[in-house]
Structure formats: C-alpha cells, structure tokens
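User: I'm writing a tutorial on reading structure tokens. Could you give me a worked example: one chain, its sequence, then its tokens, then a sentence or two explaining what the tokens reveal?
Assistant: Sure. Here is the example chain.
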Amino acid sequence: MSLDSNKALVRRAYLEGMNNHDWSVIDEVFAPDYVVRYPGVPPIRGLADAKAALSAFLDAFPDMVFSIDDQLAEGDKVVTRWTGRGTHAGVYRGFPEAKHPVPPSGRPVEFSATDIYLIRDGKIVEEWNTMEEILILQRIGALPK
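And here are its predicted structure tokens:
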C-alpha cells in the first residue's frame, strides 16, 4: 500500500469507525491479531479484546468525536496526532480495564495523543498509543489537577 493509503486507513478507523461506533469498519481496518500498547499496562492482544476495551471507553463517552490533527507516514508506519472531545456520560472503567470505575460526571473532556500504527497487507496490525489516562481522570474529576 502507498503512504497515502496507509494514512487513509488510520483516518478511516477514527472518522468512520470510532466516531460512528461502526464496528464493521473496525473489523475491516484492524487485523484479527491486532496488538495495542498503552502506557504502563500490558498490551491488549487480539481485535476482540481491543474492541471490548474501546467499547467500554465509548460507553463512558458516548458522544466522543475524534479528529485527526496531523499524520506522517514512512514505510509501513503511520504516526497520527489526534484529539478526542466528548462528555463523561457513562461509567469510566479505565483504559484498558477497570480498577476504580468512575461514575458519570457530566463533564466535557478534551484530550489528545500521538500514536504509531504498523500497517501490513492493508490492515492495522499494531499500535503504540500515548493516551494519558491521568489527564482524562483529572478532566472527569476523579483525580486532582
């Protein structure tokens, strides 16, 4: 795939899949053996487990909208800087899993990350995600600033 095709694949995951809670798009763009790595926690291995974590996150922020701020591509990797904006309207269980669920606060949240995606055979096979959960917990009032 071309560099532009790889960038479009990642954009599609956010703008068509996650923004619309369209799991069929997620199934199309991510490989079944997809691995995602978040700071400080063991990797999530397999698309089914990754979708469960994403679903729990989107349940906590049902109106979450992701925007793509910047993208760079080289070889089989795409770096994407993105922003998420939404309202904490459901129980936040942590990302990727719950230790101390946080009841809905009704607070608006905005956060961003810069992630690296590995593309093979037209699918996202691995991700290194830099989302800072501490910032989200502060924004929803679960931690002091």
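What the tokens reveal: Strands lie at 30-37, 44-45, 65-74, 77-87, 108-120, 123-128. The CA atoms of residues 115 and 129 lie 5 Å apart.
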